[in-house]
Amino acid sequence: MKPPSAAHPPPSTGLKATLSAGVAAAHPVTAEVGLSVLKDGGTAADAAVAAVLTCCVAETIYTGLGGGGFATYFDASTGEVTCLDFFVSVPGTDGDATAGPMVKVDVFFGGVPQVYEIGGASVAVPGVPAGLGEVHRRWGRLPWADVLAPAIALARTGVILPAPQAHTLVSCAPALAYGEGASCYTPNGKLLEGGDLLFHPGLATALTGLADEGPSIFYTGSIAETMVSAVRAAGGALGPRDLAGYRVRETTVDHATLNGYRVHARHDMSRTVHTIAALPADVSDISPEDRALALAVALRDQGRQKIGDTTNVSVVDADGNACVITTTLGLGSAVWLPGLGVNLNSMLGEGELITSDMTPGARMSSNMCPLVVIDGEERLVVAAGSAGASRIRTALIDTLLGLLVDGLDMAAAIARPRFHVVDDTVHAEPGVSSSQLDALASAGFTINRWSEANHYFGGVTGVGMAGAAGDPRRGGTGLLLVGS
Q1: pTM > 0.70
Q2: CB 351 within 8 A of CB 93
Q3: Of 219, 114, 463, nearest to 320 (Cα)?
Q4: Whole-number Å distance between alpha carbons of 480 and 468
Q5: pLDDT of 79-93, one tens digit each?
């Protein structure tokens, strides 16, 4: 969709006059791969696809080839914003298998136990291979095999686990280190720590097959056959027809105005675009306390509190095109493809994603919201997305307020303390203004002050006129293409 015209707002101090090419991701290696592809002449799509494939090697705590996601692309030459939906679908179209019971696991997050379900019955039809293939087909320039080469090389050696991701692993270990996952995440009986090597035997073989045969290997080829056998042996209903019938979809892109800038994104479960639209039109002029209250009220009605394993890659190329891709495994089903190092998603065990229209073949709903921000001259200002399940909306809106209203640079906007609203409770990181929290308490909100910054509060990655940065809560980083 092409954005409507709008008055160009006064420049904020965090935004530069020109846009630099760059990559932001949740792992330094992921960002480095994306940047290297840009240096080799790749488009934003080439770099984003290469980076997401690297996520499937380096960030398996969050995502993988067995997951699903969304991609938002901004075409600088036309001003068009496109969003591709390659999220997971409900299995069962084959009609020859009934899913058995799932395995309940308790995951502790913020000291509170939350029940998730994993196992074969939790596996939905994955979309990552098809989605990455479609992003590359539409907007890529480099050969497909070249885009996969960095991830294949890393899969052969393994990648060092950053400390923030090791911290996430502690919370998610009941699901990730279950069954076959134990050999990867608890080698020698000890949970991986920051600085340890994360290695998945066989993953290089899966990626090589993807490079040689394309995404079809996961849907009608040899990996598809392996997937169906593994899931059904574990009590799931996934069948050959489910995989062969999977298609990437183009989904509607909407927009809302924030301080004169247009924020473009898909309609997600948490209604990010609607939440931005509900903020006061004079948000830049009201007091911090009034803004905090307005934001808390806007967030409250849709608040949810789940974990979810998600990661995001944001890329801008030298031509001003942007590609933002968010992918997830849920917590991971603990159903691994034998000899291929691929963990399948657990989306059917994610309670907040279960809706009334869960018929076989239906596309599941998601909180993921890769977005772009455009100014009144139809120039790209921000390309960003976030991890964090129901906290994605909170993390993105707070970051955009920092960039577009408060004039912060990208790193400062992403790193500053956040609060998240669940019903009438405000969860606040250390450093959130006491006067703002007092105003929220006076308005009837219960305040839960966390003792440290935490991956619970999301994982934003962003590139734009304010620079490039990843979220320190998840070990993220941003790199700019020198000379762009």
Answers
A1: yes
A2: no
A3: 463
A4: 6
A5: 999 999 999 999 999
